[in-house]
Amino acid sequence: MNAEEFKAMQAKALEQLRSGQSLTGKDGVFGPLLKQFLESALDAEMESHLDEEERSKGNKRNGRGSKTLKTQSGVINIDTPQDRLSSFTPEIVKKRETVLSENLAPKIIGLYGIGMSLRDISNHIKEMYDVEISHSTLSEITDRIIPKVKEWQSRPLESVYTIVWLDAMHYKVKDGGRVENRAVYNVLGIDRHGKKDLIGMYVSETEGANFWLSVLTDLKARGLNDILIACIDNLKGFAEAIATIYPKVIIQSCIVHQIRNSIKYVASKDQKTFLKELKCVYQAPNKQQAEIELIKLDETWGKKYPVVINSWQTNWDKLSAYFEFDEHIRRLIYTTNAVEGFHRQVRKVTKNKGVFPNDMALLKLIYLATENISQKWTVPLQNWAIAAQQLHIKFGDRMPIDL
Fold this sequence. Notes:
five-stranded mixed sheet, 18% strand
């Protein structure tokens, strides 16, 4: 671009600014500027590529090709330099790249990560930048995070996590032309510094203790050697599966799940009174008093609701583990609310997806949602300093403290 052309470009930019026109998009002044920049950069890359070694092979420039790029400044056509041996691999505009990733691709992935459909993203890009992007191109762009998802799933873990919550979410996925159910197994942990971390995310057809066993085996293989406290729902065989891999762990079954399951088998006319007396059990100041209240509950309701009372008695060891700790830790472990709260945030992103096209599409979206949610996990939990000392007293060297 010579001096006269540059002055003309400046004049056009000022005119568009004064008239309120967009400098980007169709007929915007930034398009030609970007075109010139990209072509100059590609020429510079070609000169660097055609070094003495390449020229000794007989390689040299071999005319130009053309490429259509969708950018934030609209659709532009650029001339691309070519070499005789076709060994030139440009960096600023990669081969087969049709959307300039430095400006549009991160925005597309960001919009996808907050739950927008590919159709909505396409409409948004069209409205904002006057660029039409096909469904297949959008899918290709969002697929760029698949290696990151796989790397994240297999990343090394810290050797000890103080508290972990294990729970599953359920979705529908297409598989071989049929819609199938999928369970997404999530493991949310607190490291010894009091920071949250989603340390595992796995997909299976159904939720069961056998698959949880494979999840725990994978966590161990990735370097997680010890879990102090594991908080779970009342899935049959779950506690035994955890103890197989982490025999020293303290298991706490979710009190809220137990209450919900119990009340299903209590007549509606008795529920209010039953719940009031049951509260005396799980809100007792210590385990000894809780066991006294459980005996009273049995005396009052045992004959009428033997299955309910028997469930509390049979699972009492797992239900009462939180009594070993004071209120700072009790509040964290007596329910699986921590991981369920995480699931609620994820569902805000996935709620508009009725059926996912495949398992990886499901994992991609949950991974991106997790990246956004975890931005708030950079500081330790409130009162962690007190909780950490109590865990150190309880577990000794299994809970190291930096002093």
